[in-house]
Write the structure tokens for this entry.
Amino acid sequence: DFIKDPKRVGSGDDASNNPVTKLFNILYANVDFKTQFDKRYTELTESGLLSTQNFNNIVDLNYKVIEEYMPYHLDKYGEISTMIEWYRNIELLKENFKERDDYFKSENSLF
């Protein structure tokens, strides 16, 4: 959603109040920065480095390392209540990244 619309409000949080978003928007308003950013982002995407498959590989690699520690994390912090919820969050992470990747490739692309 950030790439589609950096000022978009999402999931109840005001994204425009995020200091990183504010900094990015300030920088992105500069023509030279915008040109360099757009060019580099396009290069990375077209190279496959930012592909859905690469992202999923990274998530899966880390998922396997983290999974055995999640029950302890759930007991200690209680941010999510079950492993099923954690598994679903992993799938949502992948789905959201794929949506971003698909959006970039669409004819409605930012660039």
In short: The mean pLDDT is 83. The two ends are 15 Å apart (CA to CA). The helical segments are 19-28, 31-47, 52-66, 70-77, 83-105.
